[in-house]
Amino acid sequence: MRLLIVEDEQRLARSLARGLTAEGFAVDVVHDGAEGLHRATTVDYDLIVLDIMLPRMNGYRVCSALRAAGDETPILMLTAKDGEYDEAEGLDTGADDYLTKPFSYVVLLARIRALLRRRARGASPVLRAGALTLDPAARRVLLHGAEIALTTKEFSVLEVLARRPGEVVSKAGILDHVWDFAYDGDPNIVEVYVSALRRKLGPGLIRTVRGAGYRLDGQAATDA
Ligand code: CA
Questions:
Q1: Which of 80, 111, 158, 215 is the most exposed place for a label (fewest CB within 10 A)?
Q2: How buried is 66 (Cβ within 10 angstroms: 0-12 exposed, 13-18 middle, 19+ buried)?
Q3: pTM for the whole thing?
Q4: What is the pLDDT of residue 220?
Q5: What is the Å distance from ligand 1's center to 23 Cα?
Q6: CA of 151 to the centre of ligand 1 (A)
């Protein structure tokens, strides 16, 4: 899961990014609205945390520009002001939820998880490929009905493949969803995680397609 934080208070942005990274999210941080809009339109984020009072372009405008372009990425707005007017305006422009500063990190995390669960239910509930079941909301993986313990990064790599079962996903495609912009290391890191997944799930499930990427095999189906 990859998140974008658009927040001009650098200390707050850094501490949010640190906490969310520790939870297993890939996190990008930008400090003004125009850059936020640019990133949001060039990267497929799972959720955006968007401050309202921002340099260059305020959060309301960023949000309404994204919605006008048909982008339905969940948006959690942060506001320093406390009042129904702001809440109404935030939700009017297409935000999914809002949080008034100062807020507790625990509450922020709960809201983020709730938005991601809500979206997971709407878009793709439980993913299945053959004997494999992956529940993005509960972050659980079952193989032949038995739970397999995965690290957060292993889970994220598998989730990218499980969302497109039977299709080849490139290393770059996996990197984009699991690692953030700050990662400038070797794309072959993906191989390390695929190897770990094969050790835990057996060798046959994730196929290497030479020169193209990886494919999750098995008869794929998704819960209705
Ligand atoms: Ca601000």
A1: 80
A2: buried
A3: 0.66
A4: 39
A5: 24
A6: 34
Domains of the chain (ranges plus CATH)?
A: 2-120 (3.40.50.2300), 127-223 (1.10.10.10)
Cα 48 to averaged position of ligand 1 atoms, centre (Å) = 15
Mean pLDDT by 10 residues, the chain (224 residues): 95 94 93 97 94 92 92 90 59 81 90 86 74 85 92 90 91 85 77 94 91 79 34
Residues in contact with 7: Cβ distance below 8 Å, sequence separation at least 6, in sequence order: 13, 16, 29, 31, 49, 51, 54, 78
CA of 169 to the centre of ligand 1 (A): 37
Residues bordering ligand 1, an ion, CB closer than 5 Å = 8, 51, 53
- pLDDT value at residue 121: 63
Question: How high is the pLDDT of residue 24?
Answer: 87
Cβ(7)–Cβ(18) below 8 Å: no
Ligand 1 centre from 37 Cα, in Å?
15
Locus of tokens 């850094």: 14
How high is the pLDDT of residue 134?
A: 92
| Ligand 1 midpoint to CA 10 (Å) | 9
Q: Is the peptide bond before 165 cis (omega within 30 degrees of 0)?
A: no
* CA of 7 relative to ligand 1 center, distance in Å: 6
